[in-house]
Design goal:
The complex is a heterodimer. Chain A is mostly helical. Chain A has three helices and no strands. The chains are: A mainly alpha, B mainly alpha.
């Protein structure tokens, strides 16, 4: 079980690093997906280790949330494209105080 | 069951209101003269309803002729109960009949007069609203409804005076009228408050019944009456609140006729007559009212002698005649004052219609009698009717003004004391009245025809670009102003018919109250004034006849003097003007009232406004309050703003760091 958790942490770190460093929103979405699935892996591993089904149910919920998030994220990207905005997360900084 | 007369009163009110709303909503679809005929029709039907109200009221035995009908309770708290109620008694019926009949004729006149105006439907909507407001005012059964009608009349006058809203002088005149009317409104509202606190009710009947329990000439009661007088003077153009009335001539001529003859200016006279129990219980206030009325009638008569604008001469004559009415009702000669109100409505509306006819024949370019003469042959019909109106105004024997004016003066004379002096001044002003009335006739209709008149005689219409007579600017004919194609020149039947009817009324109207023979008005109004202490203080018939004789002689003298000065020896007028140039200038400038108000109120007000804008607004409000508040918030949030970089990854990093910090905390804490 330890290795499952180690692998999950490894994938999560890759995802987090991608979210923090990349500027292309498409790649950021991909990395978010990695982080979520790393979480899923950890949930399943723990579910199996403890012999409890609740972790698997949680994984299913996370998948649904991931699907919703992708829909919104891709929708935003399409909207940016339609408005001829640069596909770059750093250019979208109008909320600066 | 509500009495029939009250139901008819609601009908009287509802019709002009329906006309206002209907024309206002349907202005797009009402083509041609339809809006005008609808507007006239509602007022005509309203007059018929008024007649029905009169006949049903006559069926009630005289002591019971005080019918109140309430639609619903307006305000109902402890101590204050106000209903939306109408009062039908001889006084309100009398006013309803005068208002609706003269307004109807003016509406019919306007149908042709305003024909080429772009704002045709708008005009009739306003005109109906004006009549509705006035009817609400006279039918009100308590002070609250009275104030509502009072304020509506002020608003309607503003709308109509500045009807040609591209005209600078017109909008300014409208504002002036509104501001001065609001001064009167404030007086009336405060008076109503004093009446409520002193007499415990805002209902006419209850308040007037309670007045007996207050000591005579009580201080608060006098204050309330004086404040009522402020309201009345502002509406009726009495000194010192008269300055708006001559300026109100900026509106179309039918508006002047409506304001001056039927609706607005008579409201003050009505108010004093309606509140007679208060005034009789506070004779000091009544004496002040009579004094101001007399001063006004003298002042206005002197100004009318020298003003050259035709409509303004008539306006000053209105101020002067209203002065007679105020004198009459303040001297407790109610039926005399109201009789003069009625005859004045007839001949004043007639004079304005005649003036409108002349002015429109000149293409609206010119209202100065210096540039009018010789219209006698060109406009024989206008000449005849205008002369009848002027003769009635002058008090020419056996015409209506002759009987009504002298009735006021002989009642005043009969009261004695201070009133003797007032009556003598009234007679002096009657001489001036006759003079200036025929100054208009002789200057406008006699003498060498001017270009407009002679071309009209040849059968073609005079054409000119419309210019503002005051400033000489060219008129903006795009919005509302009639424009150069506007030429009526007494050719329209719907203008001639009202003039003919009014001329007839101006001739025979006086026969309703010939001393010793008839006293129709007095008998009809008697139930309204039954509680008056002065009801039976009438001058004997012989005294009244002497008064009539004096009045007749004065009128003939005045007319003769005008004939001498303006027709026989025109040089006399010029030499008199030169010899008395100081007096002349004083009178031409209307006793410098406008200048006085300008110096005393308008300029200080404007200076105060500038000062406020420069110091209070700029420094205190914008600098200290607004700037200070934003500065504090800005400084306080500097750190929070610095975090908000707008970069998505920065937020993600902070989030991650936070989660890591929390995880670390729990790890350490779980040890």
């Amino acid at each position: 079980m330890t290795w499952f958790v180690v692998l999950s942490a490894f994938i999560f770190c890759i995802g987090a690093a991608g979210v923090l460093t990349r500027r292309n929103p498409l790649v950021i979405l991909l990395c978010l997906e990695l982080m979520l699935n790393a979480g899923n892996l950890a949930l399943l591993a723990f579910a199996r280790g403890h012999g409890d089904g609740a972790g698997q149910v949680f994984a299913l919920v996370v998948m649904v949330i991931a699907a919703c998030e992708v829909v919104i994220g891709l929708g935003l990207i399409v909207a940016m494209y339609r408005h001829k905005l640069p596909i770059d997360a750093d250019e979208m900084s109008e909320l600066r105080g | 069951m509500t009495p029939h007369a009250v139901s008819w009163a609601w009908v009287v009110l509802a019709l002009p209101l329906a006309g206002t709303v209907g024309i206002a909503l349907g202005w797009r679809t009402l083509g041609g003269r339809l809006a005008g005929w609808i507007g006239s029709g509602t007022i005509g039907l309203s007059f018929l309803a008024g007649l029905a109200m009169y006949t049903t009221l006559e069926e009630v035995p005289p002591p019971g002729r005080h019918l109140v009908g309430s639609a619903w309770e307006y305000v109902g708290t402890s101590g204050v109960h106000v209903d939306l109620a109408v009062l039908v008694d001889p006084l309100s019926t009398f006013m309803v009949l005068v208002v609706t009949s003269v307004s109807f004729l003016i509406h019919v006149y306007s149908v042709a007069y305003l024909d080429s105006d772009r704002g045709y439907a708008r005009f009739f909507s306003y005109l109906n609203f004006f009549v509705f407001s006035m009817l609400l005012l006279v039918l009100a059964a308590n002070f609250v409804v009275l104030i509502v009608g009072w304020a509506f009349v002020g608003a309607a006058s503003y709308l109509l005076i500045s009807f040609w809203y591209r005209r600078d002088t017109a909008t300014r005149a409208g504002i002036k009228a509104f501001v001065i009317n609001v001064i009167g409104d404030v007086g009336l509202v405060v008076a109503a408050f004093l009446i409520l606190s002193q007499l415990g009710s805002l209902d006419y009947a209850a308040a007037f019944a309670a007045v007996k329990s207050v000591p005579r000439d009580d201080g608060v009661l006098i204050a309330a009456c004086l404040l009522l007088l402020v309201g009345a003077f502002a509406k009726s153009g009495q000194l010192p609140l008269h300055t708006w009335l001559p300026d109100a001539m900026e509106g179309p001529t039918p508006v002047s006729a409506l304001i001056h003859a039927a609706t607005m200016v008579t409201a003050g006279v009505y108010l004093i007559a309606r509140c007679y129990p208060l005034f009789e219980h506070a004779p000091t206030a009544a004496a002040i009212g009579a004094l101001v009325g007399t001063l006004t009638l003298l002042f206005a008569a002197t100004v009318a002698l020298v003003v050259t604008d035709l409509k303004r001469i008539i306006a000053y004559s209105t101020i002067s005649q209203i002065g007679y009415m105020v004198l009459g009702v303040s001297a407790f000669a109610y039926s005399a004052g109201l009789f003069h109100l009625m005859t004045h409505a007839f001949f004043k509306a007639l004079l304005f219609m005649g003036a409108g006819s002349v002015v429109s024949a000149l293409g609206m370019t010119n209202e100065s009698i210096d540039r009018m003469s010789g219209f006698r042959k060109a406009m024989p019909f206008t000449f005849a009717t205008f002369t009848i109106g002027a003769a009635a105004l002058a008090g020419f024997p056996l015409l209506s003004g002759f009987f009504s004016k002298d009735e006021v003066l002989s009642y005043t004379l009969h009261r004695g004391g201070l009133y003797t002096l007032l009556a003598v001044l009234g007679y002096a002003a009657a001489l001036l009245t006759a003079f200036y009335a025929f100054r208009m006739v002789f200057r406008v209709f006699f003498g060498e025809p001017v270009e407009g008149a002679s071309s009209l005689e040849r059968g073609d219409l005079y054409h000119a670009e419309p210019r503002n007579p005051l400033t000489g600017e060219e008129e903006d004919t795009d919005v509302g102003f009639p424009g150069p194609e506007h030429h009526i020149a007494e050719r329209a039947f719907s203008m001639k018919a009202p003039m003919a009817i009014l001329a007839l009324l101006a001739v025979v109207g006086g026969l309703m109250a010939v001393p010793g023979l008839t006293a129709e008005v007095e008998h009809f109004l008697e139930p309204s004034f039954a509680a008056s202490e002065h009801l039976h203080e009438k001058p004997p018939v012989s005294e009244q006849l002497t008064g009539l004789a004096i009045g007749g002689v004065l009128a003939l003298l005045g007319i003769g003097a005008a004939y001498l000065v303006y027709l026989r020896r025109p040089s006399l007028a010029r030499s008199a003007r030169e010899r008395l140039s100081l007096v002349h200038r004083f009178l031409v400038n209307k006793w410098y009232f406008d200048e006085l108000y300008d110096r005393a109120f308008v300029r200080p007000g404007r200076a105060l406004g500038r000062f406020g804008r420069a110091t209070v607004e700029r420094v205190l409000v914008q600098g200290a309050l607004v700037g200070g508040a934003t500065g504090v918030v800005r400084a306080g949030t500097a750190f929070a703003r610095a975090i908000q970089t707008g970069y998505l990854r920065a937020y993600a990093l902070l989030l991650l760091a936070g989660v890591c910090a929390l995880a670390l905390y729990f790890l350490i804490a779980s040890r």
